[in-house]
Specification:
globular
Length: 287
């Protein structure tokens, strides 16, 4: 059996969203991953002061078939950790010099992308690419820093002649989503997954029959409940807003993957569209 995603990363990034009983299991696994591999489900339940049923439910929360799958996934993670030195995202201090700031931000961004690869379900990404490729139009809902990512997506898809509707104004997002149909795709970009306006817009889009996609940090959140396809990013936290910056990088990485995935499916058309748009832009440049 091939484990596509790091189960330890899923547990770490989803910890805050777990139920109290599940947090007991999660904490023990994070603190003792090697020991868990040798434990029966009965012994693990005893060590966590919980029930075997809770452990089974916890495995399902992680999208695993059962306890045996959890142990296999843990063994894969442990092997990878032993082979590769773990990157530590240092906290940025007020008295850091420019070189230290650059290094820490760079490491944080790299880690955000690497951790996102661990929690992102590739099957979900493929499903999202297919949905966008077949869509009549794309509507993107976002707020705050995530709107920069939404704008980047709009620019990218517009260049290959895929209609994208994106508004910074939350009221316009709400009024535009009422016109969606089953032929459209709605994408919500929300790091927390709890931005009310974004959730409301996506839920309306879902009611109208559109395929809904959420790009959000790993774990259970309100936006996940109204999305047909969820594309998880790593849960990045730090001071000086570096967490928000790293999460933006992870979101952009997913948008790039979506864009290239769609471009590969319609390669000839994309090359033609890119050539035309490049010629128009180049004509405006000074010699």
């Amino acid at each position: 059996m091939q484990i596509k995603n790091s189960v330890l990363a899923k547990i770490e990034h989803g910890f805050k969203t777990f139920k109290p009983s599940e947090k007991k299991v999660a904490k023990f696994i994070m603190d003792n991953p090697v020991e868990v591999i040798e434990l029966s489900i009965k012994k693990l339940a005893k060590k966590c002061n919980t029930s075997e049923a809770t452990i089974i439910r916890f495995c399902r929360t992680l999208n695993l078939g059962g306890y045996q799958d959890l142990k296999i996934a843990l063994s894969v993670d442990i092997t990878q950790i032993e082979k590769k030195e773990k990157i530590i995202h240092d906290v940025i201090e007020a008295d850091d010099n420019v070189k230290e700031i650059l290094n820490k931000i760079s490491v944080g961004n790299i880690k955000a992308i690497e951790d996102t690869k661990k929690v992102l379900n590739v099957d979900n990404l493929e499903e999202a690419i297919d949905a966008v490729n077949k869509a009549k139009s794309i509507y993107i809902f976002s707020a705050g820093a995530s709107s920069v990512v939404a704008l980047d997506a709009q620019y990218k898809f517009a260049r290959i002649n895929i209609p994208v509707v994106m508004y910074f104004d939350s009221h316009m997002q709400l009024t535009s989503c009422v016109h969606l149909t089953e032929k459209d795709v709605a994408i919500a970009i929300s790091n927390s997954g709890r931005t009310k306006d974004v959730i409301k817009a996506l839920s309306i889009a879902k009611e109208k029959g559109a395929t809904t996609i959420a790009i959000t940090q790993y774990g259970q959140s309100p936006v996940v409940k109204v999305s047909d396809i969820t594309l998880f990013t790593a849960n990045v936290e730090n001071n000086f807003r570096s967490g928000a910056m790293a999460s933006r990088i992870a979101q952009l990485n997913i948008i790039d993957s979506l864009f290239i995935g769609v471009a590969c499916k319609r390669y000839d058309d994309v090359i033609r569209h890119l050539k035309v748009t490049r010629e128009v832009v180049d004509a405006m440049k000074e010699n």
